[in-house]
Amino acid sequence: MTQQMAIWGIGLKFALFSLLYFICALIVHFVFYPFFVIEKIPYTLLVAAGIVLMGIGIPIWIISVKAVVKGFSEGILVTEGIYAICRHPLYGQAIFYTFPGLLMFFKSYILFTLPLFMYFLFRILISAEEKYLQEKFGNAFVYYMNSVNMSFPKFWKMFK
């Protein structure tokens, strides 16, 4: 029998550990200031890149949340829309777009280790969520898992 998982899967653990890492990295940044400050890249360029990344990540987050809520309430495996190009767009957008974009505003090399930490944390934690989905949806999830990338959206698949 499949044990029930919360709507956000591993999301709360993922967010908590990421937040703790962010706080530690922020403390290190300020204790060793200005050692980790990015000086070679103009701040306006960092801000522009950050806005672009967040401009990609935030819409992915909104679309993903809507799809998860709908799928969870209906008890279905969501494999369409953003989920047709990425199995875990909520985590992927945080790791590759939204948080790196936000971190651009801090001008800190040490804070850019956060997305790396988040990626490795995701890879460790996601097995529990995928095991749950496989138990709940069986071969449908196995097929989906084998045909859709885990965390980085393959945008080009939208145009097939």
Whole-number mean pLDDT: 93
Radius of gyration: 17 Å
Strand count, sense and barrel status of the largest sheet are: none
The secondary structure category is mainly alpha
Topology, number of strands? 0
How would the global form be characterised? Answer: elongated
So what's the oligomer here?
Answer: single chain
Q: Helicity, in percent?
A: 55-70%
Roughly what fraction of the amino acids lie in strands? under 5%
Total of DSSP H or I helical runs spanning 4+ residues: 5
| SSE pattern, N- to C-terminal | HHHHH
Task: Give the distance, in angstroms, between the N- and C-terminal Cα atoms.
Answer: 38 Å
List low-confidence stretches. none
Number of domain units: 1
Features:
0% strand; 160 residues; elongated
Structure description:
This protein has 160 residues and is mainly alpha-helical. The protein has one domain (11-159). Helix content is 63%, strand content 0%. Helix 1 packs antiparallel against helix 4 (114-137) and helix 3 (89-103) runs antiparallel to helix 4 (114-137). The protein is elongated. The relative contact order is 0.17. The mean pLDDT is 93.
